Amino acid sequence: MSDSEFAYGSSLSLDSMKVIAESVGIANLGDDAAKELADDVSYRLKVIVQDAMKFMHHSKRQKLSITDIDHALNMKNIEAQYGFIQSDSLPFRFASGGGRELHFVEEKEIDLSEILSAPPPKVPLGVSVRAHWLSVDGVQPTVPENPPPLCKEAQKLESVDPISKLSKPSNEDAAGKPMCGKAARLKASESVHVKQLATHELSVEQQLYYKEITETCVGSDEIRRVEALQSLACDPGLHEMLPRMCTFISEGVKVNVVQNNLALLIYLMRMVKALLDNQSLYLEKYLHELIPAVSTCIVSRQLCLRPEMDNHWALRDFAARLMAQICKTFNTSTNNLQTRVTRLFAKALQCPSQTNNESGVGPSMASMKESEKTPLASLYGAVQGLAELGSEVIKVFILPRVRWLGERVEGALSGIGGADRLAAGNLKQQLLKVLAPVVRQLRQPPDLPDEYKRDYGYLGPSLQQMVSKLRSSPSGSGGSGTAVAVVTCTPPLVPASAPPVSSMHVSKPETVATRNVVIASPAPHSPAPATPPPQKFVIVASQQKPPQAQPSSGTGHIVVHSSQPAIVRSQNVQSVVVTSGPNAGAAPQKVVVVGMPPQTPASQPGAVSQAPVSVVAKPVFARGTPQPPHQPPPELDDLSHLA
Amino acid sequence: MGDKSTPLLAVLQLLRKYNLKDTEEILRKEASLGNVEYENLDLPEVEIASILTAHHTESDPYSYEVAYDSLRKFVENSLDIYKHELSTLLYPVFVHMYLLLILYDHNEHAAVFLEKFAPEQENYYQEDLKKLAIVKHKDQIKGNEIAEIYSTNKFIVQMSRDASSQLKRYLHEQKNSTVIINIINNHIQIDVHDGPGRTLAQVRATAGGLLGEATKNENRIKVYYGLLKEPDIQVLPAPVEDEEEVEETPDKPKKKKAKKDNIFMKKPKSDPNAPPNDRIPFPELKEADKLEKGKALREAAKRVSLGPDTLPSICFYTLLNSGHTAISADICDDSTLLAVGFNNSTIKVWTLTPVRLRGMKSADKLQDIDREAGDVLVRMMEEKDRDTCRTLFGHSGPVYKVCFDPFKTFLLSCSEDSTVRLWSLQCWTCLVVYRGHVWPVWDVRWSPHGHYFVSSGHDRTARLWATDHHQPLRIFAGHLSDVDCVQFHPNSNYVATGSSDRTVRLWDCSTGAQVRLMTGHKSTIFTVAFSMCGRWLASGGASGELMVWDLSVGAVAATLPPSHTAPIHALAFSRDGTVLCSGSLDCNIKLWDFTAITDEATGEEPGSNNGPKEDKYLLRSFPTKNSPIKCLHFTRRNLLLAVGTYEGSS
Asked: What is its main location (chain A) (predicted)?
């Protein structure tokens, strides 16, 4: 309305008129005729749209619909345009080429027989009435039917930019909040404007709720606990109690870890999970309390009174999943959350030889001692925590240390002490489970036990068995199999963390198809199926030919594929583009460039033909040559790609 | 022929009008005008006059820009006390210059003129300018709604005597350009008032109508805004009051009740502003209606009194799975039934209490009932409990409004199919189809005393009906555009209408005359509501603006601060008249302190209260979960009921 930029006399273009004329069989429409037509048609169209707006308003809508146009035509005694029922808005597609630009509506051909044979569509639900209290004596209750008092966006804004709250008028604040009695009077006297920010008072009801919920969550009645957790996960308007909830969890973990109270720790972790699942909460402000608590439950050396009996492994698994969920949800480029979490776990896995190499003598001695002492349970937690972060992380942080881990396991298994032996067994199982899909991706068959033994040490043979079992299993064929493997990494217990794998599969291959693309098939013995699932490819180009004789075509670029996150690393490659892994589906994509000196002879896998022209940065995953086992793992600071 | 054709045609039409056939022939021959032009001879009267007076100067397209520019300079350079009143002249002059340019076939010049000066017109005129900008050719003026309104009506500008003499002097100086003088003479009516020039705020308060402001004379007639004396139904147990009523009412049917006889039984205080009770004839109250009234009074005794400190509770009825299909909703007076009109032509009625909806027994079963029995009303209904929801079929277009009668026996609905239908809530069938409107009917409302109802629609009229007549009793014509909403005055003597021409008008039911014309709204008016005392009228517009009018003088009482961001489609006054409640498509319900508003308005000169204290009017705002508000209703005990449609979580 106040838009003075409005163009007062817009009109259809002559070109459109000509195009339309062509479509109805009039080949040469003169310019004059086209102009007359354009003016007249724009006039009539605008009049009709104006009238249609009346119908829109009286239908109490703010979006014009096709029926409005029909009614407007009706009013002018023009027959309505039948057959244009569209419930949603119909977007214009745009195409250009040859200097011409075209907007068009996409019309798909519909196969009638398909419709006939399809099951009948569901009958739409009938209209029903539901009543709730929008306000009770002027106070809006925080029930699910009402909008949350502070929407998630606002919470997010507040945690990012706390100043914004100060500039907001106080009136806004009071909108949904109870303002009765004293508060109202205070407000009237204009004395609480600044104070309001600092006070964090909970109403009596909220205090009761907090008490009830916290007691129930750690109480003994499982049914009530489920209800309480349900409430935490679903109720809007908990944000005012959030600081207290988080402190409760954090303090609870501190106390119960010392007391080795496994059950309570599990309950607290379930609370974390419920809070994470609540759609109306934004937890970022409270991560400093939650992350230490959760990571404690992952890597703490002892979580229960009888390590040989109790199943603290489940807690570690669960907490690791939570951590992955937190990383996925709250990771931003400023907080580098995932990098920091990864570093935390990786530290636990630091093997002595490496620390020697990396740092000076003094600290290395200490850290060697430390890591030698790292209890197996902590190692297990660290492995689990890393594994949840995706296969890329597994490849970079677990795989290089597998030899050393194997030694630890071997030592513990041969040693005495039931608890240690049990822990070692679990760790071994876990390592095998986590590593097998990754190794299957990295290595080419045949899988020789000797090679595995050489590359992976003690765990080699078992890993080889695992890998060949995976390869022979039906799901483990072709590239799609790996995707499945990734999916299984994501815990089935966490419904909120739906893996973005599906989105990868629907991605269109044709965007890349115009380029010279070569697919490196990782599994020659299982040829790609006739109709492979759509996949994405990253094409990486290099500038120089490698000195080594390349078996296939000899350029130094890598053609990579598979839906598995990985770091592309090759000796010859100057620049590699890797995009984020599946666990970063929602997070902003990052590109990492890894430069490697040409040192080890490379065995370029698959067929690589021509030099592709461009590098496509897409949410796809790259895979390079199998990593020579002796290559040191990358520096931790290279981790930015995990973000 | 180009420029010449328009004046020639005008001359030709003039000749035809005075039946000068020979001259017409000669002219036709000389100008070589064929018969083809013959049909085009239907320029409006005013146009002919303006064309004939000035065609030789006005055919120069460049003179317009110069003339407008000079007028604008004159306004800018005039004294501050005149400036604001004079500036209201700019818009109509601008519009008519544009239309004249089009009329003289200077289409490019017209476009340039529009492009140059349109952005500096007032915000609230931009919507109209957009519509006007569509007209780009002479032929399009005829048949275009807004262009016709402007060319056939005079734009009204109010001015103080001093300002108008300033203007006269200016026009006198402009001898060489007659463009502005002609436009002012032909298209603008200057309403001169004595007293000082108005301030910017005062001018803005009443500006905004499609044709400018209302003239002073239009609001002179006395309006009896007081309430009728209610038939005195005591707050007593039902049987007692029934006896009393039976005694009271067996006078002449169809005639007014003999109120004078038992006036001593009523409250001695009688409202001096109230109309005589017999000004509008009402049918005699039926037995069942009296029961209903008694119930209402007893309920009213338990009413919570509201105020800024005691806000009402709101019960929100959400229509689930309705998407965009549910259009209108209404809750009956005793808050037991909810009716919803859908865009698929159906109407659904829900019961809001555990009492189910029952139908009447079939005719042969009804015959068996003893008519003298005391509980005949109960006996004639079906014994079995029926549904919680019933659907009424009959319309053939979206149902834009549903409305319960005060006694809960009938339901009215209006629709795009240009009919109003009366439904029985006992048989659950359609009883009458009222045809009369020619275009879609936007709104329909019952009289608070039943029997009468009023409808309004796209045909720019509002019509008053009685349920027992198939034709309208009155047609209220005068609005320049769609009549978007109507409302009966609480005393049933007046009807208020709100329209797309951005005016609110008040019509007298007994004479059919327009008694108030109130301008000041800046956008289409979608809902109007009378205060409980009958003196105030609240209206809500398309841009979320909310205004309160004083009917006693016909002026703005208050313009509430802009708070809603989407059209307001529901307004309700609390039963004690202290809280005004507005519901909008922006999913917000807002409560306004109506006592403060009226206090302010009665304390001050109307139209000048744009003070900074206005934000205190807003008591509270309640957002709903993505559910635009379709209907608001206060129960007799002052509980607020709201109806909205949930539109998904997106």
From this structure: nucleus
Q: Would the pLDDT of A497 be above 50?
A: no
Q: Given a cut of 70, is residue A572 above it in pLDDT?
A: no
- Taking an 8 Å cut-off on Cβ atoms, the answer to whether B319 and A127 are in contact is yes
pLDDT at B267 over 70: no
* pLDDT score at B263: 38
User: Dihedral (C-alpha) A480, A484, A486, A487: value to the nearest 10 degrees?
Assistant: 140
Chain B residue numbers with beta carbons less than 8 Å from the beta carbon of A63 are: 324
Subunit contact B135:A43, Cβ cutoff 8 A:
yes
Tell me whether residues A125 and B321 touch, CB distance under 8 A: yes
Find chain B residues with C-beta within 8 A of A59's C-beta. Answer: 324, 327, 343, 398, 400
Closest CA to B482 of B177, B197, B210, B208: B210
**Does CATH place domain A10-86 in 3.40.50.300?**
no
Show the domain range for B112. Answer: 43-198
Contact B195, B162 (CB under 8 A): no
CATH of the domain at B85: 1.25.40.500
The answer to whether B498 and B457 are in contact (CB under 8 A) is no
| pLDDT one-digit tens code per residue, B470-499 | 899 999 998 988 999 999 999 889 999 999
Residues A146-161 as b or e (16 or more Cβ within 10 Å = b): bbbbbeeebbeebeee
Write down the domain spans for chain A: 10-86, 187-334, 497-598+605-626+637-643
Q: Could you report the per-residue pLDDT of A407-462, keeping only the tens digit for each?
A: 888 887 777 767 777 888 888 888 888 888 888 878 777 777 777 887 788 888 88
Name the residue type at position B488.
F
Answer yes or no: do A43 and B123 touch at CB < 8 A.
no
pLDDT given at position B32: 67
Residue B497 lies in a domain: no
| ipTM score | 0.82
Residue of A nearest to B583 (CA): A60
- The Cβ of residue A492 has, within 10 Å, a number of other Cβ atoms equal to 8
Residues 29 to 68 of A: which have CB under 8 A from any B CB? 39, 42-43, 46-47, 50, 54-55, 57-63, 65, 67
Q: Which two tokens stand for residue B120?
A: 């500096």
Assigned CATH for A187-334: 1.25.40.770
Work out how many domains chain B is built from and give that number: 1
pLDDT value at position B615? 63
Q: Give B109→chain A minimum CA distance, Å.
A: 12
